[in-house]
Design brief:
By secondary structure, this protein is of the alpha/beta class. It has 8 helices and 7 strands; from the N terminus they run E-H-E-H-E-H-E-H-E-H-E-H-H-H-E. It has a 7-stranded parallel β-sheet, sandwiched between helices. The chain is globular.
């Protein structure tokens, strides 16, 4: 059955990077998973590779109606979700804070923070009607714990995610709905060069790796392992944590 046998999950931003890794790990552990992504075609490719336990849904998580449609698709396809992973995220290019325009700022907060507002409004009533609890995992960041210069507005959005996760955990605990944040350090994903703000060269990578005590960037498998554990019954008494998966970056 696996650690997540019989569970239904939604993973946003699942067409690549951390989200794809989480979705694949969930399917391997017995869950049925809806992969949501702005890039619907790529999400469908990943879902097809994962097999019958996976379904894809194109979704802009910053748009309320699209998130509602995603949750309705999940319920119609597999049932009410037991696990929701709010992974979709974006950033601005690493640069001085006054270099980021208002439209970019708004997009960062819409995708990273407001998306959780939309998802909670869509999912929570369904979890309450079912009455058996659930798990919400928000993908925060070490940027919200120990921020780097040059990513100030992104850092602020992830700080919001980290604190929101704790607040949700306290409010929803009486209903057996656990909420935790996973805080990755930078990984080689689609946003990698924007995070660095520099060309992706071995020399520039070395500068960033030097700040991570375990000496490497995060990988999707690292984040996926944490996401499996926190969604499983083994973590039944864990809620409200912001878990750095960061090779010691925040120490």
């Amino acid at each position: 059955m696996g650690q997540l046998g019989g569970k239904v999950a939604i993973v946003t931003g699942a067409a690549g990077g951390f989200g794809e890794g989480i979705a694949a790990a969930y399917v391997a552990e017995g869950a049925r998973v809806v992969l949501a992504d702005l890039d619907g075609a790529r999400a469908r490719q990943v879902a097809a590779r994962l097999g019958e336990a996976a379904s894809a849904c194109a979704c802009d998580v910053s748009v309320r109606a699209e998130v509602e449609a995603l949750v309705a698709h999940t319920e119609a396809t597999f049932g009410v979700p037991d696990i929701v992973v709010n992974n979709a995220g974006t950033t601005h290019r690493n640069q001085p804070m006054l270099g980021v325009d208002e439209a970019t700022f708004d997009r960062v907060f819409a995708v990273n923070v407001k998306s959780i507002f939309h998802m909670t409004h869509a999912v929570l009533p369904r979890l309450r009607r079912r009455g058996t609890g659930g798990v919400i995992l928000n993908i925060g960041s070490t940027a919200g714990i120990r921020p780097r210069p040059g990513l100030s507005w992104y850092n602020a959005s992830k700080g919001a995610v980290n604190v929101l996760s704790k607040s949700m955990a306290v409010e929803l605990a009486p209903e057996n709905i656990r909420v935790n944040a996973i805080c990755p350090v930078m990984g080689v994903t689609g946003l990698f060069e924007q995070f660095m703000g520099l060309p992706d060269t071995p020399e520039n990578r070395a500068k960033f790796v030097a700040t991570i005590p375990l000496g490497r960037f995060s990988q999707p498998s690292d984040i996926a392992a944490a996401a499996v554990f926190l969604a499983s019954d083994a973590a039944a008494f864990i809620t409200g944590v912001e878990l750095p998966v960061d090779g010691g970056r925040t120490v």
